[in-house]
Design a protein that fits this description.
By secondary structure, the chain is an all-alpha fold. The protein is built from three helices and no strands. Helix content is about 85%, strand content about 0%. This is (California timema) hypothetical protein.
Length: about 50
């Protein structure tokens, strides 16, 4: 069974577009925001 048969093409295109948009957002995020997100994630994992 082919990948294309399992997942409809329009759904795949939507997902690819969203991922491309996320990558663009990451590029334009100021470094400070990125560091803050990493610190939040680290404190979450430390608490568990």
């Amino acid at each position: 069974m082919e990948f294309e048969e399992i997942i409809p093409e329009n759904f795949r295109k939507k997902v690819e577009e969203e991922e491309r948009q996320k990558e663009m957002d990451d590029l334009y995020l100021p470094p400070r925001s990125r560091k803050t997100l990493q610190q939040i994630n680290q404190s979450d994992s430390d608490g568990k």
